[in-house]
Amino acid sequence: MTEPLLMLDDVRATLRLRGGHQTLLDGVSFEIHAGEALGLVGESGSGKSLTTRAITRMLDPAFRVSGEIAFDGTSVLAMNQAALRRYRSTDVGMIFQDPRAHVNPVHRVGDFLTEALVRERGVDRREAERRAVVLLDEVGVRNPEQRLRQYPHELSGGLLQRVMIASVLLAEPKLILADEPTTALDVTAQSDVMAILDEQRRARGLALLFITHDLELAAACCDRLAVMYAGEIVEQGAHVYHAPTHPYTVELLGARPSIDQRVDRLPVLRYDRETHELLKAEAS
Ligand SMILES: Nc1ncnc2c1ncn2[C@@H]1O[C@H](COP(=O)(O)OP(=O)(O)OP(=O)(O)O)[C@@H](O)[C@H]1O
Ligand SMILES: [Mg+2]
After folding, report:
1. Is residue 1 part of a domain?
2. Can you tell me the distance from the alpha carbon of 137 to that of 140, in angstroms, rounded to the nearest whole number?
3. Which of 65, 113, 115, 187 has fewest C-beta within 10 Å?
4. 97 to 101, 103, 164, 213, 274: CA distances (angstroms)
């Protein structure tokens, strides 16, 4: 088997507190291979977001992190600042729950999309804008040239999240970390945005760590699921959704409102670039 793209081995994150410490990630281990999607599910506070922050070394300095995190065989914990910057800006792309919290409100959409290409990769501004227009079109943003001139507040949440996806794809990462990317959007925008993310990452063969509370969505979009509870991965694999073995996973699945619905009955939506329509994928 080839080397995993991302490997976490016994990752612990401990918060030093006055008079003691609290372990918030407790021996987290998983792998994601190139082109593979892993769904990370678990209740609120179980450590999902901390895991993504550990992967990008963005945990608060008060945390002590041990174990190993390797990207493409290189230890992330051992990277120097220059390597870390490269890793964050070119290897890994991040999509968060609230796109508005991650854009500068006084910068136009075009500046947001092209800034990194121009500044960090020396791409000519007009070329960067051309690439941004192509990508906005690919993620289903109509009139992309006009959108480049708008400010974030002029775009709906769903549209802004598409801009976020476009900005991540522009950097051509190998791995996307998506932490609840649709939770803050209204229901119709949720399925649109997820369909686009799913379609684009498959078309480009990108790996994905998809964090969600929605087990059915995770099962529909991912090759494997990992279930987190109190800072630990209690169960992971391709079997998790249909044949969970850990009691917590059984309970988590039982807590869903539609326990009798099987994931393969859920429509997986695909975005059609020509007609700008969402289509139900063929049932497999
Ligand atoms: N900077 C921090 N200082 C102290 N505790 C923290 C910090 N960040 C997170 N925590 C705690 O660590 C635990 C895990 O948090 P995390 O944000 O990873 O949960 P989560 O699984 O992403 O939850 P949610 O589904 O609500 O987003 C929580 O108990 C949280 O309060
Ligand atoms: Mg979280």
Report:
1. no
2. 5
3. 187
4. 9, 12, 11, 12, 28
Nearest CA to ligand 1 atom 4: 15
Number of domains observed in the structure of the chain: 1
* 257 domain residue, yes or no: yes
Pocket of ligand 1 (CB under 6 A): 15, 24, 42, 44-50, 60
**pTM score, two decimals?**
0.89
Residue 214 banded pLDDT, cuts 50, 70, 90: confident
81 within domain boundaries: yes
* 69 domain-assigned: yes
Domain span including residue 212: 6-280
pLDDT of residue 127: 96
CATH number at residue 266: 3.40.50.300
Distance CA(118)–CA(139), nearest Å, equals: 21
> Ligand 2 centroid vs 1 CA: distance in angstroms?
32
**In the Cβ-directed half-sphere of 276, how many Cα atoms lie within 13 Å?**
6
